[in-house]
UniProtKB/TrEMBL annotation:
It is an enzyme of class 1 (oxidoreductase). This is phosphoglycerate dehydrogenase. Residues 186-340 form the S-adenosyl-L-homocysteine hydrolase NAD binding domain. Keywords: NAD, Oxidoreductase. Pfam families: 2-Hacid_dh, 2-Hacid_dh_C. Its EC number is 1.1.1.95. It comes from Tripterygium wilfordii (Thunder God vine). The keyword NAD applies.
């Protein structure tokens, strides 16, 4: 359909405008718009560009995302890749965006949702944790929040196991010693994993994958998670136990819980005091679940023999951080999801979730809406279409048949709304 026309024999369509713009000189002239009366051509161009710009939603990508995900987004939306935005810059840009994609470094606060003016429809978190997104504010402003919970599961589990084995055999410290010209074999005697008890704290996707791999190393694995089903744990040979039993009997503790009000500083002076002396701790979850000052005290007292940390309360940690510099701590810069395969997978997964949400499709990875398995979504889809049509019909009946109801995501062929609803 033509946007408007000054000459009925030569209507202006989006395709003709795109062709004209692609061949236009640096300064737009009357020759760029054949068939249009040429008075006030600049004003006409602005109107046309504005109308065309509204044909696609705008997605703001605020942190680095894999190219495969960017290309998928560009096939559906206008993509604005603006990295390292300050909170003020983010609030300034967000009113022009329909969707926002972040990783762990960008805080999506209540101010962001308020600044969007109601335009922001979906926030995509490229990863599992959503502690940097204000879910309450998102829900209040009618904004869906989706994440990418599966693509980096294996990468995070592998990194957890890597830290576990590296810590047990003092790999990082011995490597630094050799590169410094020393040969201290007796100083870096490690401990064996076979027959030791590993407590997996948080038995979700990553925790269960860590458990599978730990059992392959000959470890006895227990787990604590108040929400995990016991039958799923038993299926892979893991025993679910209470929190106190887990931390008091474990030789190694691996943390995989989300950061919530309930888990904030869950590992503190009190919990460290109940652990077996010489316990070793791995954290590839969130830095805030550990009271870092309490961990330093536990390391100094010998309650905790070693710690391997991929996450910290403040990232990057400040210079001179006592925990990072402790000789019994192995530290990595939040590398849990940092594999080539995981980065591409997360980019594609979050891009698909955001595009689907913008299309009005059911989001299987929504975190502020009921989670629906993919196989159930396909069964529910026809009923949702029917419910939408019945709702539109009800509004028309209430309005006496005079109301014309349109939905943003209605992609039905022209005239379909006139069909008898009983045929659907």
């Amino acid at each position: 359909m033509a946007l408007f026309t000054a000459n009925p024999t030569k209507p202006i369509t989006p395709s003709s405008i795109s062709w004209s713009l692609s061949r236009s000189p640096p300064f737009f002239s009357a020759a760029c718009f054949p068939g249009v009366r040429h008075e006030r051509p600049v004003k006409r161009f602005i109107v046309l560009a504005t109308v065309m710009g509204e044909a696609k939603p705008t997605v703001l990508v605020a942190e680095k995302l894999g190219e495969a995900g960017i290309q998928l987004l560009r096939s559906f939306a206008n993509v604005d890749c603006s990295y390292n935005l300050s909170p003020e810059e983010l609030c300034s840009k967000i009113s022009l965006c329909d969707a926002l994609i972040v990783r762990s470094g960008t805080k999506v606060t209540r101010e962001v949702f308020e600044s969007s003016g109601g335009r922001l429809k979906v926030v995509g978190r490229a990863g599992v944790g959503i502690d940097n997104v204000d879910l309450s504010a998102a829900t209040e402003h009618g904004c869906l929040v989706v994440n990418a919970p599966t693509a980096n599961t294996v990468a995070a589990a592998e990194h957890g196991i890597s830290l576990l084995t590296a810590m047990a055999r003092n790999i990082a410290q011995a490597n630094a010693s050799v590169k410094a010209g020393k040969w201290q074999r007796s100083k870096y005697v490690g401990v064996s994993l076979v027959g030791k008890t590993l407590a997996v704290m948080g038995f979700g996707k990553v925790g269960s994958e860590v458990a599978r791999r730990a059992k392959g190393l000959g470890m006895y694995v227990i787990a604590h998670d108040p929400y995990a089903p016991a039958d799923r744990a038993r299926a892979i040979g893991v025993e679910l136990v209470a929190f106190d039993e887990a931390i008091s009997t474990a030789d190694f503790i691996s943390l995989h819980m989300p950061l919530t009000a309930a888990t904030l500083k869950m590992f503190n002076d009190e919990s460290f005091s109940r652990m077996k002396k010489g316990v070793r701790i791995v954290n590839v979850a969130r830095g805030g679940v550990i009271d870092e000052e309490a961990l330093v005290r536990a390391l100094n007292s010998g309650i905790v023999a070693q710690a391997a940390l991929d996450v910290f309360v403040e990232e990057p940690p400040p210079q001179g951080n006592r925990l990072v510099l402790h000789e019994n701590v192995t530290a990595t810069p939040h590398l849990g999801a940092s594999t080539t395969e995981a980065q591409e997978g997360v980019a594609i997964e979050i891009a698909e979730a955001v595009v689907g949400a913008l299309k009005g499709e059911l989001a299987g990875t929504a975190v502020n809406a009921p989670m629906v398995p993919a196989e159930v979504l396909s069964e529910l889809a026809p009923f949702l279409v029917l419910a939408e049509k019945l709702g539109r019909l009800a509004v028309q009946l209430v309005a006496g048949g005079s109301a014309k109801v349109e939905t943003v995501n209605d992609q039905s062929p022209a005239g379909e709304e006139d069909k008898d609803p009983r045929q659907d």
